[in-house]
Amino acid sequence: MDTGTIILAIALIIIMFGMGLSLVKDDFIRLFQHPKAVIVGLVNQIILLPVIAYVLISLLNVETDIAIGIMILAACPGGPTSNLITYLAKGDIGLSISLTTVNSLITIFTIPFVIDFALNQFLEADEMVQINKLQTVIQIFVIVIIPVSLGMALKNAKPIFADKMNKPVKIASGAVLFLVIIGLVIKKKEELIPYLKQAGLTALVLNIATMLVGLATAKIAKLSLAQSRTISIESGIQNGTMAIAIASGVLMNDNYAIAPAVYSLIMFFTGGVIIAFAMNTSSQK
Fold first, then answer.
1. Number of folded domains in the chain?
2. How many CB atoms lie within 10 A of CB 283?
3. In DSSP terms, which residues pair with 238 in a beta bridge?
């Protein structure tokens, strides 16, 4: 395991530990109090997101490495960043945290199958890479469930300390993600421009499409404005760090990590647009 992969694993562990610090018992109770909103959110994240990603890749005739990278990203859960954007955009923060948590648990088991599908679809026979699904599940379990559980345990034992740690941990995780992306850009600088042209367009279209579909399905389900906004954000804000870690650490191919890195940058921009729109709408009332 190289230094970059180790740093990625540490970054993801920090992010998931930070998510655990923000979780309380009510986040799980809420799943049963608002089942319709949770179900709509999970359908968007776990089913519709990979389907939309695959359709876009097919329509845009995307290069193989970008196509696989986009599918890896689409298989990953929403990241804790979605909780912050939801809060700033005046969405349902409780629903956001609940969806991020449950989605992170479920995708531990779905990610290997989506990745296997992508590899079979986009690689030629002589390029095929076989992944050990059980080993992949165990790897993701270690870097997701254990740090989340430790964060929750600390929150339960030392709630005041956990609250103080929450913000610094989120800042640290964001800084590490930024450094990882910069490192990837430097490492792949010679191949970057042609990759960026394809990855940028595909990532932007995917991000906007999933947010719009999330909003539409929430409206069809007659959810509240705050819940609809939350599902839209949760559908489009992904755990880019996990996608990059899987690409570089599990599949050992940094080229697959370029699309998730580009998407991670784009989602901050679109998230900012949603926040600005929500704040403007609120100020006009």
1. 1
2. 7
3. 78
> Is residue 285 in a domain?
no
**Residue where the block lists tokens 């998407």:** 263
Helices (H), the chain: 3-21, 25-33, 35-42, 49-60, 64-75, 81-88, 93-122, 133-157, 159-187, 189-220, 225-236, 240-245, 258-283
Report how far residue 237's alpha carbon sits from residue 229's, in angstroms, rounded to the nearest whole number: 12
- State whether residue 78 is helix, strand or coil: strand
Average pLDDT taken over every residue of the chain = 82
**What is the C-alpha to C-alpha distance for residues 156 and 197, in angstroms, rounded to an integer?**
46
Here the CATH number for the domain that contains residue 226 is: 1.20.1530.20
| Residue 125: Cβ within 10 Å count | 6
Can you give the residue range of the structural domain that contains 152? Answer: 3-276
- The count of other CB atoms within 10 Å of the CB of residue 50 is 21
Closest Cα to residue 81, out of 259, 247, 268, 208? 268
State pLDDT tens for residues 90-124.
888 888 888 888 888 888 889 989 999 999 999 87
Q: Which two tokens stand for residue 46?
A: 């776990």
Cα–Cα distance between 45 and 57 in angstroms, integer? 17
Give the dihedral of Cα atoms 238, 242, 244, 248; nearest 10 deg.
Answer: -160
Whole-number Å distance between alpha carbons of 152 and 146:
10
0.70 cut: is pTM over it?
yes
